[in-house]
Amino acid sequence: MRHKLHQIALVFVGVVAGVLLSLHLSAVANKDSLGPLPVEELRAFAEVYGRIKSDYVEPVDDKKLITEAINGMLTGLDPHSAYLDQEAYRELQVGTQGEFGGLGIEVGMEDGFVKIISPIEDTPAHRAGLKAGDLIIKLDDTSVKGMSLNEAVKRMRGKPNTQITLTVLRKGEPKPFVVTLTRAIIKIQSVKSKLIEPDYAYIRVTQFQEHTGENLVKAIQNLYKQNQRDLKGLVLDLRNDPGGLLNGAVAVAAAFLPKDVLVVYTDGRTEDSKMRLTASAENYLRSPHRRDYLKDLPAQVKTVPMVVLVNGGTASASEIVAGALQDHKRAVVMGTPTFGKGSVQTILPLGNNTAIKLTTARYYTPSGRSIQAKGIIPDIVVEDPANSSLEAMRVREADLERHLSNGQEGDKKDKEAPANKASGTTPQGDKPKDEAPESAQPRKPTEFGSKDDYQLAQALNLLKGLNIIAK
After folding, report:
1. FRET label pair with 276: which of 136, 247, 258, 302, CA 20 to 30 Å apart?
2. Out of 85, 327, 384, 399, which one is annotated catalytic?
3. Which tens digit of pLDDT belongs to each residue from 88-127?
């Protein structure tokens, strides 16, 4: 039996070696191509595979072993690369269209636990007061330690009107607290807008989706119609916007920038990963046959004084928008430093309706700044007094284990950032104590766009001041 398993393992390692050899041949033209095949490591892999098949306490299916090996390869790279099985791949496709069943939180993985990167507005998680940086340590009665991120997401998503109990650890709280959420169909309204007062408009983008650009145009048209004359100022709110589709970000930036100026560029090892995306229709329309909806915008939207609000939950695509408007001096960026997710994930289908999400490049602002692990630094730093403790303990890209380096300033700054963690997690290596959690009502966050929104009030004051100076 052992001899047979040894033969199976050798065949398996031969298959892996063949795949690596084909990759080597396809990368011959690249100076950073694969070196000699790692024979010793492949032999060790085959031996482990064989030992599991022969000695593990229960029989293990080959498919499970190979799937977990793929998972391990990808999660060991950085916090954003992942294997997407059929269900995860389908949910990804559905989520970008703005509707899915679940709790409404953007999550990541740290030290084996699930971290909340950002709660999505008007969802069960947001209404319950969950905050960025909260650490989910249990889903119902099951510890998340040892789960993959995909497994945890699957458990949190489910049929509407069903309940799930989360045990949450929060920085500053003496014990974990328990919150029970009712799943709902998450219909994300990606663009919200209103007149703050006559002549001053507020637009909030909560996430970049397939139709965000078109929704932005409709919102701007409605604002000008309500105001019945040109605006004197506009606030674009990107706080707690976790990102989304790249073309949506280019569309939003292009709405306020001159035609054809550079919005963002990417750089990676392959030619496909080197892109320069400008404020032109071919870079934000999903199909070349679709009508250019940005042509319907009022001409004054290109020159109206603007403030962009950002915070530590402003990530990825929203950082691209903030960086582009800042570099072109089109808007004043106000708030607190952003999350710092400046890496590009490419979805690579594998067949059988599965895929891998692989980090393939870094994002750079028009002036050449790398966003990765640094983020966008506001022109004017304004903290919300009501949320100052939340910002202090908010997790950012540089806090995540195995985060990709900035690529410009070396690793020193990136390595220093996690040492000053205040992210709502236990220190690396520590485990949450096995104490009985207590029920607690999480504190409600400030409602963005409300009369109590301190940062919005400061943005409005700045816009009024700019108008006085202009006169």
Report:
1. 302
2. 327
3. 887 777 655 555 678 988 888 777 889 887 788 788 998 9
